């Protein structure tokens, strides 16, 4: 069921609710992408009422400005409150993991469980970004010529999607299925909000590089599940300091890349289900 949720400034955010059970609110990554959680929502629909949303200016949610973490937190609060009585479980993937973490800090009474999937941790990007770029380059070798050609010029919307698909092949562990899985991840393709990406990247860097994020992690009240893909090109060591700082944390590594539900669906669903249900 698609619903429009009114934010604090009157803008209406696109949300989708599926399944039965206690609420599980999912936060997509990017930053600047759209809700891409069709597969994990289907996997978990028998256990949760899964609520997904497009961040403002992304996908099916209209632009209303400003692009700020504070506004994102207010928007997420509106989505969480729309699910009914607090608290609820919140899941964030990739950059959305940081959004979910900051929401748990800002609104601790509204978060029962936090699921942090494939995030990049709270270490400065300078400590891991070079390894990420090397991993990306290694996995793009089969597509390098076409990738470079598209990346170096103006593109049509169809070519924007093609470029995204080629880059996203690096997010999967098995080269034999990476292109197929990247095509699935880009269907539908709703475009990338580059202005949103730039604004959130700048604000994220300021928050993380200052040490504020690491210090704040020690005060998270909700139990946290960290799900890593062992073959994610974003080095998982960058999450170690976050795991050490969190007061209540469980960490699970799956034989997968950046989207673990795509390559290990049963194990991913079991990890989320068992964590939320066993920690009530």
Throw out a few tags for this protein.
single chain; 280 residues; alpha/beta; Rossmann fold; eight-stranded mixed sheet; 12 helices; 8 strands; 18% strand
Q: Care to describe what's here?
A:
By secondary structure, the protein is of the alpha/beta class. Helices cover 43% and strands 18% of the residues. An eight-stranded mixed β-sheet has the order 1-2-4-3-5-6-7-8. Helix 3 links the parallel strand 5 (88-93) and strand 6 (111-117).
Task: Give, in order, the helices and strands.
Answer: EEEHEHEHEHHHHHHEHEHH
Shape designation:
globular
As a percent range, the share of helical residues equals: 40-55%
| Straight-line N-to-C gap | 27 Å
Number of helices: 12
CATH architecture: 3-Layer(aba) Sandwich
Mean pLDDT: 96
CATH topology-level name:
Rossmann fold
CATH superfamily placement:
Alpha/Beta hydrolase fold, catalytic domain
Read across the widest sheet, the strand sequence of neighbours is: 1-2-4-3-5-6-7-8
Classify the beta-strand content into a percent band.
Answer: 15-25%
Largest sheet, in brief, is:
8 strands, mixed
Tally of structural domains: 1
User: How many runs of DSSP E, i.e. beta strands?
Assistant: 8
Q: Which radius of gyration do the C-alpha atoms yield?
A: 18 Å
């Amino acid at each position: 069921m698609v619903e429009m949720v009114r934010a604090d400034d009157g803008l209406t955010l696109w949300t989708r609710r599926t399944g039965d059970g206690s609420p599980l609110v999912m936060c997509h990554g990017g930053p600047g992408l759209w809700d891409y959680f069709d597969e994990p929502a289907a996997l978990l629909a028998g256990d949760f009422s899964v609520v997904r949303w497009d961040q403002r200016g992304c996908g099916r949610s209209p632009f209303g400005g400003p692009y700020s973490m504070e506004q994102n937190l207010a928007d997420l609060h509106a989505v969480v409150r729309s699910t009914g009585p607090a608290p609820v479980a919140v899941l964030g993937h990739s950059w959305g993991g940081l959004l979910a973490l900051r929401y748990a800090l800002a609104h601790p009474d509204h978060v029962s469980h936090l699921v942090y999937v494939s995030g990049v941790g709270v270490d400065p990007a300078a400590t891991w970004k070079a390894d990420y770029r090397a991993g990306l380059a290694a996995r793009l070798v089969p597509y390098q010529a076409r990738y470079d050609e598209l990346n170096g010029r103006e593109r049509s919307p169809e070519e924007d999607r093609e470029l995204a698909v080629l880059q996203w092949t690096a997010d999967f562990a098995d080269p034999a299925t990476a292109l197929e899985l990247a095509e699935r991840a880009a269907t539908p393709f709703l475009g990338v909000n580059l202005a949103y990406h730039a604004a959130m990247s700048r604000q994220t860097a300021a928050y993380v590089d200052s040490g504020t994020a690491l210090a704040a992690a020690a005060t998270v009240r909700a139990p946290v599940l960290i799900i890593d893909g062992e073959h994610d090109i974003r080095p998982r060591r960058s999450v170690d300091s976050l795991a050490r700082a969190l007061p209540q944390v469980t960490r699970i590594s799956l034989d997968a890349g950046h989207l673990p539900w795509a390559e290990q669906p049963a194990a991913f669903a079991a990890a989320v289900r068992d964590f939320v249900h066993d920690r009530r």
